[in-house]
Write a structure and sequence with these properties.
Helix content is about 40%, strand content about 25%. Strands 1, 2, 3, 4, 5, 6, 7, 10, 12 and 13 form a ten-stranded mixed sheet that branches. α1 runs parallel beside α3 and α10 runs antiparallel to α11. The protein has about 270 residues and is of the alpha/beta class.
Length: about 270
């Protein structure tokens, strides 16, 4: 029987990427060892049909296009918890765990119950990227390191089910597409749980990440954009309501609100310049 560990993969209209992800899990033996949930938020490219045909052991949950990343994770976690999950593993479909990475994450959660642990993530060129934060400092972990953090990006993250029992699901209203991962982990650490990056657990990020920390680079890479698509679309990392909730939740209103205003003003100025 498979272990009561549930890998949760949110997907939307990236059939080829999703199938590569699942094939990687199969090659590594993870598909055979753990429960896998794909949450398809209304794909129109027949992703679910291809997954069902090629990987019948995968559980498919469906949304109507309004789940986004955070809602998809919340749905998957709730489904798994109701079926006795001991641990969850968040996994983006463009994140490819190396052999034994998920085993290392599961073993860590067994050794340190009531914790959260993320893999160290590398781009295809081999560069290690920062996937955690502590205060305002962005954090990464070398191969021989285990680094404590306040929050984590959700590329490949193991979470004890006891944390879900205590604090519930990620906030899919305030953080639909962006920041739902980091703010959920931050909520957990503020509640007294511990979070880490495990350097020996490695993931390759197959898709180029949004350059969220460089607004100018972000808009230069877009073929077509408008004020609305940059600042009022959930697909954008600069969606202003999300950024408002992010700054005020992470730093509190006294610090977060002025910081948000300064950043938002800077982005708008650079948009028009």
């Amino acid at each position: 029987m498979k272990q009561s560990i549930y890998i949760i993969i949110p997907i939307y209209n990236r059939k080829s990427i999703t199938l590569v992800c699942l094939e990687n899990l199969k090659t590594n033996g993870d598909l055979q060892k753990y429960q896998v949930i794909v949450v398809d938020d209304g794909s129109s490219d027949r992703t679910s049909e291809e997954v069902a045909a090629n990987y019948p052991e995968v559980i498919i949950l469906k949304g109507d296009g309004n789940l986004w990343w955070t809602g998809a994770m919340a749905l998957g976690m709730t489904y798994a918890y109701e079926r006795g999950a001991k641990n969850f593993i968040w996994l983006n479909d463009d994140s490819l765990p190396a052999m034994n990475t998920l085993d290392l994450i599961v073993n860590f959660l067994q050794e340190y119950p009531n914790s959260i642990v993320g893999a160290a993530c590398y781009v295809e060129t081999g560069q290690l990227v920062e996937t955690g934060f502590k205060g305002r400092q962005r954090i990464k972990a070398l191969e021989n390191e285990t680094v404590a953090v306040d929050g984590l990006s959700g590329y490949c993250v193991g979470i004890a089910a006891s944390i879900f029992k205590e604090i519930g699901a990620p906030d899919a209203i305030k953080f639909r597409q962006y920041a739902g991962d980091g703010m959920y982990v931050l909520k957990a650490t503020r509640a007294g749980f511990k979070a880490y990056i495990l350097g020996s657990a490695k993931v390759i990020l197959a898709e180029e990440k949004d350059p969220i920390h460089n607004f100018t680079n972000y808009i230069q890479k877009l073929r077509k954009y408008t004020f609305k698509s940059i600042f009022w679309d959930y697909k954008s990392p600069y969606h202003l309501p999300t950024q408002f909730y992010y700054h005020t939740y992470k730093y509190g209103y006294l610090t977060g609100l002025p910081l948000f205003i300064i950043k938002a003003t800077s982005w708008v100025i650079r948009f028009y310049v």
